[in-house]
Amino acid sequence: VRERALILAGLVGFLAAVTWPAWSARASHPVSDGPVLVRPVGETKCVAPTDVMRRTHMRLLADWRDSVVRTGVRMMTTNDGRQFRMSLTGTCLGCHQKAGFCDRCHAYVSVKPACWECHVAGKESR
Ligand code: HEC
Ligand code: HEC
Ligand code: HEC
Asked: Whose C-alpha lies nearest to ligand 1, atom 43?
């Protein structure tokens, strides 16, 4: 049993040594993962899964606007049953910081959504 343990320990050590360059390269170059975003504090879930939001939040916002402006429906239910008011400033910015989150990522990818001249944080109609 002792010998097996020794062989195992040797194997683990060998693997660590062989893969070490990859680990240390990863640790010393942590910056290539995009902008540093200010994350919501005390919230764990967006109105849709994070990867879905990352790819499709623009379309979701357009759908929210159409629903509110065209049909007057202001509430929505997420797939996991939570209810939200469909409001850019009231709901999205209730969890997210405009500057540290939306603006920072948009600056990084060079998009400038033209929403903020009308939708001002804290001053929206409701
Ligand atoms: C010219 C002004 C203007 C611009 C620019 C604008 N909106 Fe709006 N938006 C409005 C008005 C007015 C309403 C209706 C407000 C209401 O009924 O509560 C509205 C409603 C909405 C709503 C639903 C209600 C709410 O309070 O959020 C969403 C979501 C929305 N807009 C998203 C956007 C997005 C996303 C952009 C940028 C791509 C954008 N809007 C640009 C004027 C504007
Ligand atoms: C109840 C709080 C809450 C609301 C409301 C909310 N979010 Fe989120 N959102 C989160 C959380 C929590 C995450 C996950 C952050 C993480 O993974 O660190 C997230 C993730 C995201 C992401 C992906 C970020 C990334 O890492 O790529 C985007 C984009 C986003 N939200 C946009 C929005 C928009 C736009 C709205 C309004 C339509 C909105 N969120 C409403 C809490 C919220
Ligand atoms: C992780 C990065 C990221 C975060 C965080 C993020 N966005 Fe975006 N957003 C993008 C990208 C990338 C695009 C452009 C997508 C495209 O052109 O297909 C975009 C586009 C948009 C558009 C459409 C712009 C247009 O002119 O068509 C709106 C509206 C928008 N984002 C709103 C928001 C809001 C509101 C938040 C914060 C609650 C937010 N985004 C957070 C990456 C992000």
From this structure: 118
